[in-house]
Protein: RRM domain-containing protein
Organism: Hibiscus sabdariffa
Amino acid sequence: MASVSSQPQFRYTQPPSKVLHLRNLPWECTEEELIELGKPFGKVVNTKCNVGANRNQAFIEFADLNQAIAMISYYASSSEPAQVRGKTVYLQYSNRQEIVNNKTTADVAGNVLLVTIEGQDARLVSIDVLHLVFSAFGFVHKITTFEKTAGFQALVQFSDAETATSAKNSLDGRSIPR
């Protein structure tokens, strides 16, 4: 097998499902890349990208169970592993029978952002600094800070969803200055 990883490409712990779980995807893998990977085996009816702690996992849902079985069977017997952008992708059946995209939470833009501040100096970021950074995008109604296992977090409430979306798109993944 072409894979140099000691990690198995397949895990047969789940019964067959029309939803496949993919691991070890490249950073910010797109829905189009997932559809392209599944297209030779059948109609991909739904995807969920960039899930998991490292955002390197995804789900593909086929229209029919036999299409998912065909994809798993093909890569289980192929000398070439499934790949996206040259990176070996690990496949397994999901424990889900369909992908549910919960459109009532994170997928729908709202006027409140959940901000996670990572790193050793996360606790040094004050509400005043957060207000200064986020008010550059519009009026900030409220800021609430708290600690979770993910790190130091804040909820930042704007006047409207457009302002929150603008702030998110501009600041996502960026460092906050001291």
